[in-house]
Amino acid sequence: MIKVGIVGYGNLGRGVALAVSQAKDMECVGIFTRRAPESVKPAINFPVYSIEKLIEFKGKVDVLLLCGGSATDLPNNTAGILKDFNTVDSFDTHAKIPEYFYKLDKVAKENGTLGAISIGWDPGVFSIARMLFGAVLPNGNDYTFWGKGVSQGHSDAIRRIAGVKNAIQYTIPKEQALSSVRNGENPNLKTRDKHLRECFVAVEDTADKAVIEKAIKEMPNYFADYDTIVNFVTEEEVKKMQQKLSHGGFVFRSGSTTEENAHLLELSLKLDSNPEFTGSVLTAYGRAVARLSKEGKTGCVTVFDIPLKYLSPESEEDLRAHLL
Amino acid sequence: MIKVGIVGYGNLGRGVALAVSQAKDMECVGIFTRRAPESVKPAINFPVYSIEKLIEFKGKVDVLLLCGGSATDLPNNTAGILKDFNTVDSFDTHAKIPEYFYKLDKVAKENGTLGAISIGWDPGVFSIARMLFGAVLPNGNDYTFWGKGVSQGHSDAIRRIAGVKNAIQYTIPKEQALSSVRNGENPNLKTRDKHLRECFVAVEDTADKAVIEKAIKEMPNYFADYDTIVNFVTEEEVKKMQQKLSHGGFVFRSGSTTEENAHLLELSLKLDSNPEFTGSVLTAYGRAVARLSKEGKTGCVTVFDIPLKYLSPESEEDLRAHLL
């Protein structure tokens, strides 16, 4: 049995706990939290410990699945944890991945541990598609679309506007852009052409809706470059929408091998629960990290470095016989 | 530069030659054929040699891309070639893959060579999707659909019927089955539910079309378990259809992480030219085999064993920065 620990218990930690409970080759030594352990009621009956107890589990856990956020948790904590444990994380700040990689690679190699970074669906499953598609169809264009799904960053940005009580923002791929790519037209798509941003906003009674709508639509980086729809709704409606964590998206490679012959490769995901699916991907890579570490591998790795067979609990013989 | 050789020059060999000519990190030492070399006019101006000259290239080529068929060429020849060369092949007789693997693995390990088998889109890219999807969504069902595209085996079977001059058979996924899977209904699909077989047949003037149609529709293994449409057309029409080598298909994983939350993962390929795309996949795996062999890897490998980064001519740094 592979012994895993879960670090952090928000939506993603819950998704990981569910996935680990369904993996027949894994057992969970504990959930480690910054909160008071007795205040955490996990979906699965795993023991809950204070994060301060984590070090006592050194040598007793094969891999830690890190469920903190990319803004502060992972950049601040992962290097320290890697000194004593193997890890898998979902670091998704694309621009900072190279820097994060080198920092963790150094720590892991010095300490004989292994850390898989940027695991999930994007980065993660989508990265695999982009890399594989580009390698087998080198003459072509990549297109990645996200949604329909909630962008936490954009929802937070709306909530920071004065007079806004709560808000949720959906990123929606534009049908026309999807169709054009699917028709092999190889369109040159600007930011505005690819995604629509739809916002549901609950405001104070005294707030000026026109001012808030303008503030959202003209917000640089977040909304100014997009077509944005703003709907004013009640706090209850926003709260209800926040219960639903569905997401998804598409990766396309549209290219050709000769002037006559074009090819279209497409990966799509439709996910009822973003954190549950992401947790499931983290868990599969936890299996891979535990195995690779036993084989002596150290350092920092991504989805590009790990042979896919390590993700599955099936034997290599079974994989060749049934899935090849 | 990676030095490759191309063994066999039919449709697949032509596709590989086109792909190798577009790879900036590869050069082709030659095309090796059983035919008279001067009778082969390759699409790319690579040297053409008799297959008997192949052994003279031992030590002068990093990997051979084998473009023979799975019925006789590959089972009869690959083990012998692997004694002296690294190889990539597209062996696609699913039921015989385990046996083929063990035979080649032994030869390759004894001779310090590396052979990648069953490379293409199915087996190959589709196998990657089945394996990855199943690992990240263990609770679910797999569905693979092929087409619309030509089945050579079924076309051959029709041509063996007395009175048939020429024939082509298209495998077509049934829309209703695709929709049901896409709707997350997790249908239990029988052979007849998944694919339709449409045949275009040119017959002798004296042939009894009713008898031939019956012979096709009732043919065990090939057509009896399917809904089959038989169209009688002229030889010219069949010949024209045989010029077009488009194909494609779909791999789905439909499953759930909890009772409430279902997920649908889909990979689809739409290919104008089956052999050109397959040749492009073989070429990317040729790059991987050449590199892995230089690192000392020997034996037989499949898409499950090879980290994806080996497929790309880009550096690991660039892959992490741009594709992750």
Indicate the proportion of strand residues of chain A: 25-35%
Question: What is the annotated CATH architecture of the largest domain in chain A?
Answer: 3-Layer(aba) Sandwich
Strand order across the biggest sheet of chain A?
Answer: 3-2-1-4-5-6-14
> What is the CATH level 1 assignment of the largest domain in chain A?
Alpha Beta
Report the helical percentage of chain A: 25-40%
CATH topology of the largest domain in chain A: Rossmann fold
Q: Rounded to an integer, what's the Rg of chain A over CA atoms? A: 22 Å
Number of domains of chain A: 2
In whole angstroms, how far apart are the ends of chain A? 26 Å
**Quaternary arrangement of the chains shown?**
homodimer
Largest sheet geometry of chain A: 7 strands, parallel
**Anisotropy-based shape of chain A:** globular
Overall pLDDT score of chain A: 97
Q: Specify the CATH homologous superfamily of the largest domain in chain A.
A: NAD(P)-binding Rossmann-like Domain
Order of helices and strands of chain A: EHEEEHEHEHEEHEHHEHEHEEHEH
**Tally of DSSP helical segments of chain A:** 11
Largest interface: A-B, 66 and 66 residues
Describe this structure in words.
The structure is a homodimer of 324-residue chains. Chain A has helices at 11-22, 73-82, 97-111, 125-136, 152-159, 175-182, 191-194, 209-217, 235-243, 274-294, 316-322; strands at 2-7, 26-33, 48-50, 63-66, 87-88, 114-116, 140-146, 149-150, 164-173, 195-203, 227-232, 247-256, 262-271, 299-301. Chain A has 324 residues and is α/β, with parallel strands linked by helices. Chain A has 2 domains: 2-122 and 275-322, Rossmann fold; 140-256, Dihydrodipicolinate Reductase, domain 2 (2-Layer Sandwich). The first copy, chain A, has a 7-stranded parallel β-sheet with strand order 3-2-1-4-5-6-14, with helices on both faces. In chain A, β1 (2-7), α1 (11-22) and β2 form a beta-alpha-beta unit. The longest helix of chain A is centred in the last third of the chain and has 21 residues, at 274-294. Chain A is globular and about 60 Å long. The mean pLDDT of chain A is 97. The interface between A and B is large, with 66 and 66 residues. β13 of chain A pairs antiparallel with β13 (262-271) of chain B, so a sheet runs across the interface.
